[in-house]
Amino acid sequence: MSDGASQVAGHLAEVQPGHPRPRPIRRLRAALAGGDVAVVCFAFSIAVAIVCRGWALLAALSLCLVLAALVYPAGLRMLTRRRTWILLALIVVSATLVGPDPIRTLGPFGLSLQGAVVGFNMVMRALIIIVAVTGLVSTVPIDRIGGVLEHVGLHGLGFAVGVAFNLLPLIERSLVTSWHAMRLRAGLRRPLTAARLLLVAAVTSSLRCADEVVLAAEARAFDPNARRASRFTWRLRIAPLALALGAVAVVFVWVLQ
Amino acid sequence: MRLSLKELTIVAALGALWGSVEMTLGSFLHVLNIPFTGAVLGSIGICIALVGRVVVPKPGSTLSIAVIAALLKALSIGGVVLSPMIAIVMEGLLADVVLSAGGRPRRSTFIVAGAVAVTWNTLHMVVIQGVVFGAGIIQMYVVMVQKAAALFHIPASSVVAVLVILVVMHVVAGSVAGLVAWEAGRSVVARRSLAGLDAGDPT
After folding, report:
1. What are the chain B neighbours of A211 within 8 Å (beta carbons)?
2. Does residue A49 lie in a domain region?
3. Quick check: A160 and B81 CB within 8 A?
């Protein structure tokens, strides 16, 4: 089916009398289709996660969750996983046990109120980042995310960041495997040699992952420096939202913090 | 600076490697409050970036690896990351400047690049945190010196000795990182050449 035919078919399916979609939902979907709204919300989330502390961070978390529910609901899927909450609970517990000025000691550890506060701050920050990253990645294709960086003149960097982001789990796994292999073969007896060998193993496995990406990209005649059809475009109507979120971030930092 | 698809992907993979070290080992060391975390992480990171320079021998490749690692560091959950992100980029920038000024890749250039990049960590807290985060530079300087003096059980009055020890330790760590990177980079390039994969100049 040609593109025109599929567009007509989609249009007909949309206006079927049995299943009419409400107009506000159609408008919202049209507004979110370009991905620029998601990128602005993501940028806001990361910025407030970096600069906010304490009550400002709590307010930022609330707003980011609301934005995620509206813009990229797929990001909230991470919060339904038990593993996420176990990880976050571990962060709070460990920060409470190793924090400064313990109010009560339990053997080598102590119960630190300051540590607990720091732990909760880390958890709030983690929640903002997890939801924002998951939401953006599941809503906007990675080449468009890279297009954002290329849009500001960093040719190829957007592609490189996208590749790096996708390679992270593979590289972490190979790093752990190399470490265990070296430890089991008693390779840690000579630290400097061990460090060099571990570095060579880690770099080689990373480059192997890179070679696979290069092969896949070359098979598709991909050119990172070329102007692509999927190049990211900013719409003018995104400006009020970006300005409003910027103002909110300033309020969070200067008033609440 | 324009890198080819292959070079860009290699830069991305090594940036991801540095980023994953920062996100895992970095968060772990920061939580445990281990001294000289910056020197340890900086040495490991710059080692990876310098290996990248051997594999992709073009000006700007070290900086690109650092920028990617810094962007990935933003996704770390281990507390404040703005300062480490700036430190990572500065380390990459300094190493790149030294390597670009040094001309043809040589062992000595790599050692100097590693030393200069890792030594930035001694100044980083004073320069960046003092200026960007608003505290007075001198005050921050005093805090750093007092902390180091307490660690080495040296009277705080012997400021110069403490500073010299700090700088020398960072220089040594960076030099070792540069040396290891040079050797490891050559091994990697030799392995890739044996495997028939095109890579940088192993000389």
Report:
1. 9, 197
2. yes
3. no
Asked if residue B150 is part of any domain, the answer here is: yes
In a domain, A177, yes or no: yes
Task: For residue B203, tell me if it sits in a domain.
Answer: no
A76 shares a domain with A155: no
| Amino acid (one-letter) located at A256 | L
**Within-domain flag for A167:** yes
Q: State the nearest Cα–Cα gap between B141 and chain A, in angstroms.
A: 23
* Contact call for A196 and B183, based on CB within 8 A: yes
Q: Which two tokens stand for residue A48?
A: 């407030």
Q: Do B77 and A91 touch (CB under 8 A)?
A: yes
pLDDT digits (tens, 9 = 90+) for B102-155: 888 889 999 999 999 999 988 887 776 554 444 444 555 666 566 666 777 777
Closest B-chain CA to A213: B9
| End-to-end Cα separation, chain B, in angstroms | 23
pLDDT digits (tens, 9 = 90+) for B26-63: 777 776 777 788 888 899 999 999 999 999 888 888 98
Residue A155: give the domain boundaries: 142-229
Domain membership of residue B151 as a residue range: 5-194
In what helix (H) or strand (E) does residue A172 lie, and over which residues does it extend?
A: helix A157-184
Structural domain total, chain A: 2
Contact list in A for residue B13 (CB cut-off 8 A) is 163-164, 167, 171, 206-207, 209-210, 213
pTM for the model stands at 0.64
Look-up of token digits 């003096």: B149
Residues A41 and A110 placed together within one structural domain of the fold: yes
Closest among B57, B68, B122, B125 to B92, alpha carbons compared: B68
Give residues with Cβ within 8 angstroms of B94, minimum separation 6.
Answer: B113, B116, B117, B120
Whether A133 and A253 share a structural domain: yes
CA-CA distances (angstroms) from residue B16 to A188, B77, B133? Answer: 24, 16, 28
Q: Assign residue B66 the CATH number of its domain.
A: 1.10.1760
How many domains, chain B?
1
Cβ contacts below 8 Å, chain A against chain B, sum to 135
Best interface-test mutation with B: which of A94, A200, A218 has the largest number of B CBs within 10 A? A200
Whole-number Å distance between alpha carbons of A198 and B68:
22
